[in-house]
Amino acid sequence: MSTPETVDRVLLTAAVVMIVVAGLLLLIRIRRGPSMLDRAIALDVSAALIIAGLGAKSAFSRDPYYFPIMMVLAFLGFTGSVGIARFIAVRDRPTPQETKEGTE
């Protein structure tokens, strides 16, 4: 194995270790919360970590097979984030009665 290949493997291994550590910290954030928005953001980041893991696997095996899967997961993660944000925005919107009370 040549020096560039060794450096490549070491960097990919370090990237996978960092992804695993980030996943463990993400599980802690999902469990602790404290709000629903924190958990929603953590789930969105989990989609990004899955994509990063697939990218590392693809680079490790030098196989471009996972790129379309990564694109689909990125699209699903984006639409899920937008849906959650819209749900939280509607849920947290003040009612007309609350708005009236705040102006008096």
From TrEMBL:
Topology versus the membrane: Multi-pass membrane protein
Keywords carried by this UniProt record: Cell membrane, Membrane, Transmembrane, Transmembrane helix, Transport
Span of the signal peptide: none
InterPro entries: MrpF/PhaF-like
Organism: Streptomyces fulvorobeus
Main location: membrane
Family: Belongs to the CPA3 antiporters (TC 2.A.63) subunit F family.
Protein's recorded name: Membrane protein
Membrane-crossing residue ranges in chain numbering: 6-28, 40-60, 66-89
